[in-house]
Design brief:
D-galactarate/Altronate dehydratase C-terminal domain-containing protein; alpha/beta; globular; about 100 residues
C-alpha cells in the first residue's frame, strides 16, 4: 500500500503501516514546509507546471516508492499510528431505534 495524502494546510503526518506521499496544492504551504512535502501541485496554480506534468510526477513517484525510494515522511521518521476509539459496528439512521 502507498497512501497519497493531499494537504493544503501542511500536515506532516506519516504512517507506520505504509508510505505516505504528501501532495500539497497550496503554494505558500509548500514553500514553508517543502522539506516535509513530496509533490508541489501548487505549481499548477502559479503556471509553473501543468496538470499533466504534476500527474506524471505523482505517477513516477508512486512507482519509485513502490521500488523502495523513501517518501519525505519516511526519511524524516514520521511513523504515526492510532487505533480508533469508535466502534466499527454499523449504526442505522437516527430515526431508527438503537439496539440495546
Amino acid at each position: 500500500h502507498i497512501n497519497l495524502f493531499s494537504t493544503g494546510r501542511g500536515s506532516v503526518v506519516g504512517s507506520a503501516i505504509s508510505p505516505v506521499i504528501k501532495v500539497c496544492a497550496n503554494p505558500e504551504t509548500f514553500r514553508r514546509l517543502s522539506d516535509d512535502m513530496d509533490v508541489d501541485a501548487g505549481r499548477i496554480l502559479e503556471n509553473r507546471g501543468t496538470l499533466d506534468e504534476v500527474g506524471r510526477e505523482i505517477r513516477d513517484l508512486v512507482l519509485a516508492v513502490a521500488k523502495g525510494q523513501k517518501t519525505r515522511s519516511e526519511a524524516l521518521g514520521h511513523r504515526e499510528f492510532i487505533l480508533t476509539y469508535k466502534s466499527f459496528e454499523p449504526i442505522g439512521p437516527a430515526c431508527l431505534p438503537q439496539s440495546a
